[in-house]
Write a structure and sequence with these properties.
mainly beta, Thrombin, subunit H, Pdz3 Domain, 3 domains, six-stranded antiparallel beta barrel, 25 strands, elongated
Length: 503
């Protein structure tokens, strides 16, 4: 889950009453309990994935206390045979395909005779079996029907990763959720659930676990596709149309809450549609807002509509900034609309990469304010290198250039340029404004398509480089074809002005 200022997350929910599922510590049997940790933590927007960015495991302790009375009332002197007081509690239970089932609990407190006693009477009714049927998009389904039909279509995901902290490395684990979209083992989840993982394991509702491989994924839209082999006959979910979702509609999710409460169902309503959520890297994603209970470990799970169709991918929860003086924020969760990522998912399965994605073939860096002031550089991004044979080289772009505009849009940094570039498709022609040796030049460039090889190279680079500030530059450096991740390149002003000093 995401923080507005930090993409680490992880939440302890102090009100888990909507979660149902196996308790913490369940083994890989029965409901298929999954080991794992909680999600990124640091307040703000949070998603279920790695605990503290793979730093340790967080835990949640729930405290319950009874408020004692002001003292015991003095006993009244008994008169006659005494008096009996009865309290009757009636509870109506909604049940399954039959529509309504009933049960009543009667509690009678009997004080009489020679002693005090409590007698409890309970009228038990056999539960009505729930019909298991597929979503047809025409008939609304109850929450119990959705769970009975699609709990087997949901999975728990556990990951292992090597965390580098200073000079030390150590193993860390994380947990998330996902859902099956094909009988032969393709699974959808959030990218942040598996980002940086060295191993990925998927556990089904029947308790069976399988090693999974990453087919493809991207941080930009926070979506990833996994594949498990050696299993057939899996039950996929039915995908719906997220454009049809309306405010007030009942929705539910099934996920691996807290990384231990596997296959828990929570329900709520749609609070808003097309809600713009800004991630820590500046990327803006339009999401469905819901008051379903979303905890760390739920990320990547399905959001079902009232017809049992998947209309979103559970991704984030709004939480406070961690201050003890702030009230906890509940009932504000987000899911990525399925329509926004279905083409990406399909491309990953068919081609292994997203078709039509623009590619420039350059590596760029942000420019710090200090360098702008010291050398008179304009705002923009610095070109660290230009790939041989790329569209950037064909256009005349050179190492040391500063890109200040794409068409009429001013370029201010790597993350912003990534967003601008991704608004185009492969084959589009744009005009680049560059600053070179004290002069502005105009270049014409037609975007290449990011194919499987360049996509994997960019993804590998992002996974290995991480983010941070450059001590020599005071700013952030970029990556091949500007994406939010950064590299360890440092702008060399000597090379910029005099040349002869490369990287």
């Amino acid at each position: 889950m995401y923080d507005m200022n930090d993409n680490q997350n992880g939440m302890g929910n102090n009100n888990p009453s909507n979660d149902t599922g196996c308790a913490s510590g369940d083994s890989h049997g029965g409901n298929g309990g999954c080991p794992g940790g909680n999600g990124y933590s640091d307040g703000g927007y949070a998603s279920g994935g790695y605990s503290e960015g793979f730093v340790g495991q967080s835990s949640t302790t729930y405290h319950f206390s009874n408020t004692p009375g002001m003292g015991q009332a003095p006993k009244k002197e008994k008169k006659g045979a005494g008096r009996a007081v009865a309290l009757v509690l009636c509870c109506a239970l909604v049940g399954g395909a039959a529509g309504v089932g009933g049960a009543a609990v009667y509690s009678a407190v009997n004080r009489g005779g020679d002693g005090d006693g409590t007698v409890i009477y309970q009228n038990k009714v056999d539960p009505t079996p729930v019909d298991v049927r597929q979503a047809d998009g025409l008939t609304p389904m109850s929450l119990s029907e959705i769970y009975a039909a699609y709990a087997d279509s949901c999975v728990c995901i556990t990951v292992q990763a090597v965390v580098q902290q200073g000079y030390y490395q150590y193993q860390a684990s994380g947990a998330g959720s996902g859902f099956i979209i094909s009988e032969d083992g393709y699974i959808v989840t959030n990218y942040h659930v598996i980002d940086g993982a060295t191993s990925i394991k998927v556990t089904l509702n029947n308790g069976e676990s399988y090693d999974a491989k990453l087919v493809g994924g991207e941080e930009l839209n926070d979506v990833a596709v996994l594949k498990i082999d050696g299993v057939t006959g899996l039950k996929p979910v039915v995908l719906g149309d997220s454009d049809d979702v309306v405010v007030g509609e009942t929705v539910c999710t099934i996920g691996n809450a807290l990384g231990t409460l596997s296959f828990s169902q929570t329900s709520g309503g749609v609070s808003a549609t097309d809600r713009s959520v800004t991630m820590s890297d500046g990327t803006v994603i339009n999401m469905i807002q819901t008051d379903c209970t979303i905890n760390s470990g739920n990320s990547g799970g399905p959001l079902f509509d009232s017809y049992g169709r998947v209309v979103g991918i559970t991704s984030a929860k709004l939480s406070n900034n961690g201050s003890s003086s702030d009230a906890a924020i509940e009932g504000i969760g987000f899911a990525i609309p399925i329509n926004d990522v279905i083409n990406i998912i399909t491309d990953y399965i068919q081609y292994g990469y997203v078709t039509g994605r623009p590619y420039m073939g350059i590596q760029v860096s942000d420019i710090s304010q200090q360098y702008m002031q010291a050398f008179g550089w304009p705002a923009g991004v610095y070109v660290n290198s230009v790939e041989e044979g790329s569209c950037a080289q064909t256009s005349g772009l050179k190492q040391g250039d500063i890109i200040t505009k794409i068409d009429d849009t001013d370029i201010t940094g790597v993350a912003q340029m990534s967003s601008v570039k991704n608004s185009y498709t492969a084959g589009d022609t744009v005009t680049l404004t560059v600053f070179r040796s004290g002069e502005y030049l105009t270049l014409t460039m037609t975007f290449d398509e990011q194919d499987n090889q360049t996509a994997q190279g960019s993804q590998s680079q992002q996974g290995n480089q991480g983010q941070g500030q450059l001590p020599n530059q005071g700013g952030q450096s970029g990556t091949q074809d500007p994406e939010p991740s950064q590299s360890s390149m440092v702008i060399d002003p000597w090379s910029y002005f005099f040349g002869g000093r490369g990287w």
